[in-house]
Amino acid sequence: MISGMAWVFGDHISSDAIIPARFLHQRDSRSWAKVVLADLRPEFASQVGFGDFIVAGRNFGCGSSREQAPLAIKTAGVAAVIAHSFSRMFYRNAFNMGLAVFTCPEAAVRVHDGDRLRLDPYSGLIEDVEQQISFQAQPVDPYLTDLVSQGGLLKKIRKQITGHG
Amino acid sequence: MNQPQTMSQKILASRAGLPYVEPGAIVEAGLDMVLANDVSTPMAIRGFKDIGGEHVFDSSRVVLVADHFTPNKDVASALISKEMVEFASAMRLEHRFEGGSSGVSHVLLAEQGLILPGELVVGADSRTVTHGALGAFATGVGASDLAAALVTGRGWFQAPASIRVELGGELGPWIGGMDIALALLRLLGPEGAHYQSLEFFGPLLPRLSMEARMSISNLMVESGAKAALFPVDQVTTDYLRDKAKRSWRSVAPDPEAPYAKTIKLDVTGLESLAARPHRPHDVATARRAGYEPVNQVFIGSCAAARLEDLRVAAQVLAGRQVHPRVRLLVLPPTPRIMLQAVREGLVETFLAAGGVMGPPSCGPCMGGHLGVLAAGEVAVATANRNYRGRMGHPSSRIYLAGPAVAAASAILGRVADPAEVLS
Question: Which candidate, A37, A17, A11, A5, places its Cα nearest to that of A112?
Fold first, then answer.
């Protein structure tokens, strides 16, 4: 079980909003974590706690394919992103790099900013402690579950190449 | 007898070594070309080394293009370019573009004949979908995918369901690929093609140039599309005749191929369009898009600044002056287009009108450099994204439009239809 606070965002949060391109020539994921989502919520990067959750609306991560977006979120300490839906490339990148993402339209609508959540990453069961309600996230393709359980795409490939992790 | 398949299914199945792939199924497939730029390469090289990569899978099928921050905007971007050059030379890559050879990757690769019909292509850049114009299944991936692809020459794909897009009617004066693209984004919305691919059909296609097709495929990623494929026809063959670097085979959807849905766009009577801040799908006619004063017009990027587009912009600007408030920035996307624009006198037209020429680069499109916006400034760009803060300060505002609207807006200092200038 993962427990943390919900930071609620709206629909169509773009990768430009998650990590603006003007920071992309920097090379350290910690520098990206310091400015993650800053154009939308300047206090987010400094106040987000380790294990907190982003809860967002439709099409989260839309826009560019930059993997810096899920990496910045992961580096900032976010345990998982729960959204109504995800952009294709953000969803793909998140699995490839081991950021947990859950599609759950009901949670996206009903969770309030600041609610304490509990998440079972294996079953996808999300509990809103404040409101005493729970939600079931949509199931994930077994190929992707396997990808995450192997630690992401690069760890999986390394295992294939070298025979060990 | 196999079930009929869309063009997307056929390409994925063929590269996965399967006779058939079901939409929704995840397959691993071999790649024909792998593209990386100066935003994605450093992370990919790190990943490549992490997984013990020593050689790329095929030194003729990896292309590195330093385009986002070229010419190097600062020490950090110069170091990235240097790392790319060193990696390319260590890996003996046949195709590496940097400095004077560089241009905006999606324009450059097509111009160089490096991506061909029926191929499966990934690029660590969302605009890789542009190459669907050539009949390739081309899609954007992240840096981890790229690192894995460099080593293995393979990638994982969820086979998408496809939407059939039928284009018909007659194009009016000044109406081009960008207007069709914006009209389609208005129809589809931001999630209209979520996880799906678009395949184009219809009587308009023989009259739709490769440049216009590229603008359309380029923008379709804003509808969530994974790929946006045009059929391989006479326009494709003519375009590739003196360019293709490899032999290629045509591919076409099966006659009874299953499409998730069909959307139709009749372009007859279509007016010049513009997308309003801060959404590429918030599309209005250029006449009514907005009346606020414009500070900057950017003609460039992988969306709509190919030679055909520059000719259109120059036609509108010829003998006229840019509004005193407006900075007009023209960045031809490749050295070859720049040279041809000089030869045809287009550059002289832009300069005489009061414009500024910039080098082939993504430049201001994503707020990198060469024309970043200040607080509250308004821009019109022949680009593909106008999300908040994309081109600079978070309070700046961007309209997206084709080259004719961009040029007319530069003259009038507000978003304008070319007819308002030319009448």
Answer: A5
